[in-house]
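Predict structure. Chain length: 654.
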Amino acid sequence: MPPRRKPTSTTQKKAAQKAKRAIKRGDLPPPDPKKPVKRRHRGPPVSDAVQTSRKLQSAFVALPPEFLEKTRFLAATLPLTRPIPEQARIFSTTNFDDIDGSTLTCPRRPKWRFDMSKTEVERNEEGLFRKWLAETDQVVEAWQSPSKLDEGWLPQTDQASQSPPKEPEGGYESRYPFELLLSFHSPKSTSSEVAMPRSTTYFERNLEVWRQLWRVTEISQIILVLLDSRAPLLHYPPSLATYLSDRRVILVLTKVDISGPARADAWTRYFSVRYPGLKVVQVESYIEKETTILHQGRKQHDPHIPESFRRRLVEAIKEEHAAMLEPPEKVKANPAWLEKWKPRTKRDIDWERVMAAEGDKVGTVTGGPAAPHEDEEDEPKFLTIGLIGQPNVGKSSLLNALFGAHKVRASKTPGKTKHFQTLFWTPDVRLVDCPGLVMPNFVPLEMQVLSGILPISRVSAIPSCIHHAAELLPLEKVYKLSQPTPIDPVADKRTWRGERPGGNTVKGKPWTAMDVLTAYADAKGWVTAKAGRSDINRAGNAILRALAEGRVAWAFWPPDVDVDLTVDESAAGMGIWIPSTDGEGTSGGEESEEEGEEVKSAEELSENEQEEGPAKSEDEEDEDSEPESAQVALGAGRFGALQDIQGEDSDEEE
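Prediction complete.
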């Protein structure tokens, strides 16, 4: 006989039906709503190299939606200062509340012993890092507190007593009359009354990236700190100077071909006075290819360092090495200590070979995370030189220039290097390339974006960054933009409160950051897919990339320079912009027709992406960068060599 069905199923069904009826009648309370089950998509297996690369992704905080809404509105209302004050050329430390480094610090690796297990060492590091992260967040929040968001930042009317919603289809101008927007910031009002709120500052929040810095500083005997010569003080904050106070450091000014020799020499003198015990050298990392073939309308470049810069760098390293061979004063005073003292570096180094080392015979990869530990009692086999700095300062590019060949991956994307790697310069000298990480510093987000420290694709406050850049550079002159005129409403014979509506055009209307974005998007013909409005997100993305990558040349003067010495007739009112003098044009010009940038518009972004910005992978960001023509400014096309490197390493996926 077939087995009988269990009566429990029918009983359960009847009980469920009775319960539903009781709930409808109100005899029983409704059950708790079921939580949606998130089904994870199981893709192909991920390799260990990819997992390690994901662990080394830089982590930053997300900006609040209220801040994005406020800065977007102010970018459309606050007029830009024209002409730009000459004081804007000077890098002022007071603008960033630069202090002596006692409040913001870099995390130090806790002490460890060889008898400790890996779990114990990592647990100590994680505990110390959590404590440091909490303390740093408190300091940054206190620094930002004078400009905390207020609830009444929009013009209040009888109908608008609450915080406004998201931007409508017609923009802010459709919600508020243009005259009301102008009255929100009248020319008579001071900057203290209405101004952009102070944004937060970004710094590295991933422990794995800080561990790379710890390891490089431990194995390096001489450290080269690379500083972008356009704003070098931004790349050597007090937190990093304090962290490296007990190390042998050489400051290297990069990208001097963009900033120019006058500014580079002024910054060299400034650092020599401020840090008298440190050596300061200048370098260039690219040379134009001797070919008539253009790549996307631009000239191509190869990694190369001029002979004069190379010799100065080698001489500075040689002097630091010679100082390491001298015993300290307290050792010299004690004969017993002096007899047993040994230098912690290799004694004999062929410096002539270092000067001539280039080509395929150098740059052999060695070590990395599995680098062998050297016995302290024996003399080291080679001199180890570490290269550290913030993202996009040119560490990998300098290595390729020293070797005269593409040995390490260099990219215009900040933070392309994921893991430190060691390469032999000569059999006596090895170099260690450290991944770039954003150091803690009292610098607003907009300045970090302008200097190229942060990936542009991860920036969500585009209008605020463009407003900050336009206060320092005349972007409308750089790109030869025409100020957009507001669209007049359709003519209507009806009146409102006895007045006939007319056009909303204002004579002599000053430029705003949103005007710059709209004019640039209109000049390019970039519109959103749905509403057909000017794609300001794509325009802002392109402008910020050009500024960060050096296709629009700019640079600050050091704080100790007299303003009158930095001004000439041709540069009056130009701010930090360096117009081209090579006859290739002085404006942004037109880009090549082969555009590779497909930046998402605001309509195509989800709500999460609008708050945190389009989070692309860094490999995608390289492909999405927009090619500019050679007419942009001095130094245009200098990143052409990076495209060659990417092509050679296209098979290597991290």
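Summary: The beta strands are 222-228, 249-254, 279-282, 286-288, 301-303, 364-366, 383-388, 421-426, 429-433.
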